[in-house]
Amino acid sequence: MVKICCIGAGYVGGPAMAVLALKCPAIEVAVVDVSRSRIDAWNSDRLPVLEPGLDAVVRACRGRNLSFSADVDRHVADADIVFVSVNTPTKASGIGAGRAPDLAYWESAARVVASAAASSSRSRSGTKKSTVVVEKSAVPVRTAEAMERILVAHGGEERAFEVVSNPEFFSEGTAVRDLLCPDRVLIGGRDTDAGRSAVRAVRDVYAHWVPEDRILSTTSLWSAELSKVAANAFLAQRVSSVNAISALCEATGADVSDVARAVGGDGRVGDGFLSAGVGFGGPSLQRDVLCLAYACERSGVAEAAEYWRQVVAVNEYQKSRFVRRVVSSMFGTVAGKKVAVLGLAFKKGVGDTRGSPAVDVCRGLLGDGARVTVYDPMVSEKQARKGVAARVQVARDAYEAAQGAHGLCVLTEWDEFRALDYRRVFDGMQRPAFVFDGRNVVDAGKLREMGFVVYAVGKPLDDWLSKGTRN
Ligand SMILES: NC(=O)c1ccc[n+]([C@@H]2O[C@H](COP(=O)([O-])OP(=O)(O)OC[C@H]3O[C@@H](n4cnc5c(N)ncnc54)[C@H](O)[C@@H]3O)[C@@H](O)[C@H]2O)c1
């Protein structure tokens, strides 16, 4: 029986291994983590990751061929294939702070693999045992080289290691669906006999449920590593492109939705990720763009680094432009005024506020003295205060948030914000009542008829806003 171990029971490791276990009943899968509380949560009825369908998948295989354990060394030593899915955040301090990925967790995992595997060198039959180590985390190009060096330094005569890159492309909120039916599975390895055999071993696992033509397994290690950050950078770049157009639309009276429809209608461009808004967010996009820019800089291609940095710069511009628009529309000051914020998650369908533009907008408004009350259907009060600031107020619903407010900002595209009774919202607000739609979800025409002053990203400006307010 093939044994798989995954180091890192996070957003990626947990769901990815649960689906693998579901689809491969003959493979024993252990997910390990240094965080005992995370492991306890995976073994409980309240999983640490909220994804539609995940509970059912875990229930179907936990205790059968899927286990969660804090005994990292034992499971790593036993495994034929070790996935490494630890966190790789942007460095907070030191060389490359704010730009380079922090590879400390990554290296600690490499050392765990090396020493645990070395302690169980010979297989039961006495032959030299080999372990395939799979990079699942998003890492800078050529990270596998460092991993190989650490492993070789520990491996000696007794143990063979082969490193393969298999980045994860699922989206938060649709993780289980994406894992069950991926549009592609990318596996990169060394062009040697051992490298090809390791890629084959990983490919055989996915072949249990993924059609062959979706498994891309002739890629080099470096291309596979680079593909993950490049894919996220392209997504971010599209959002920044349409947001840059949105600023010009507001200045000229064009409508960004019309422009995006016309541009995306060209089959060569495609229409995905072309919705203008308050900016991209989430745990990965910005980090991966910065990771790519840093790799360019370190590789001597400064112009390419600058190009990618501009994607992040436009995103920052879009968030601060939104805050300036709120303040300038409300007579140049929000000090002491209540501003309701609808939506804190970085996108609809998730309760994740990591990197959310809504968090930055709230901080900007608080910085200008506003009294901010937030409401998000999936973000708890504790999480909202932790993510934004202790002094933020948290409402139980959108109406409570808007009660007595001078302005209302829509910052996540939840469906329920489209369907609100805006007449009721209007009745509860101060006059003039402002709506700032950062996701283009409200019917601006209808709201104006009710008496709201409405700003919507990239749309022709309300008369009120075009008179004497610039951003
Ligand atoms: N979150 C996403 O939607 C997503 C999607 C695709 C790829 N990724 C990438 O996948 C990787 C993992 O992301 P995540 O969101 O699952 O991170 P996470 O922070 O949710 O989980 C990582 C886990 O690794 C554990 N860990 C760290 N070092 C360890 C060690 N030495 N031994 C054992 N456990 C260790 C941590 O305790 C943590 O529980 C990152 O590189 C991320 O960029 C994330």
From TrEMBL:
One example GO MF annotation: UDP-glucose 6-dehydrogenase activity
SUPFAM superfamilies, A to Z: 6-phosphogluconate dehydrogenase C-terminal domain-like, NAD(P)-binding Rossmann-fold domains, UDP-glucose/GDP-mannose dehydrogenase C-terminal domain
Domain UDP-glucose/GDP-mannose dehydrogenase C-terminal per the UniProt entry, residue ranges: 340-444
Catalysed reactions, as listed in the record: UDP-alpha-D-glucose + 2 NAD(+) + H2O = UDP-alpha-D-glucuronate + 2 NADH + 3 H(+)
Pfam families xref list: UDPG_MGDP_dh (PF00984), UDPG_MGDP_dh_C (PF03720), UDPG_MGDP_dh_N (PF03721)
The EC number(s) this enzyme carries: 1.1.1.22
Cellular component terms per the entry's GO annotation: nucleus
Chain sites annotated for binding NAD(+): 8-13, 33, 38, 86-90, 172, 354
Keywords tagged on the record: NAD, Oxidoreductase
Transmembrane regions listed in the UniProt entry: none
InterPro entries: 6-PGluconate_DH-like_C_sf, NAD(P)-bd_dom_sf, UDP-Glc/GDP-Man, UDP-Glc/GDP-Man_DH_C, UDP-Glc/GDP-Man_DH_C_sf, UDP-Glc/GDP-Man_DH_dimer, UDP-Glc/GDP-Man_DH_N, UDPglc_DH_euk
Pathway given in the UniProt record: Nucleotide-sugar biosynthesis; UDP-alpha-D-glucuronate biosynthesis; UDP-alpha-D-glucuronate from UDP-alpha-D-glucose: step 1/1
Gene Ontology terms describing biological process: glycosaminoglycan biosynthetic process
Family annotation (Gene3D superfamilies): Cytochrome c1, transmembrane anchor, C-terminal (1.20.5.100), NAD(P)-binding Rossmann-like Domain (3.40.50.720)
Enzyme class: oxidoreductase
Known role: Involved in the biosynthesis of UDP-glucuronic acid (UDP-GlcA), providing nucleotide sugars for cell-wall polymers.
Family the UniProt entry places it in: Belongs to the UDP-glucose/GDP-mannose dehydrogenase family.
The protein's name: UDP-glucose 6-dehydrogenase
Species per Swiss-Prot/TrEMBL record: Paspalum notatum var. saurae
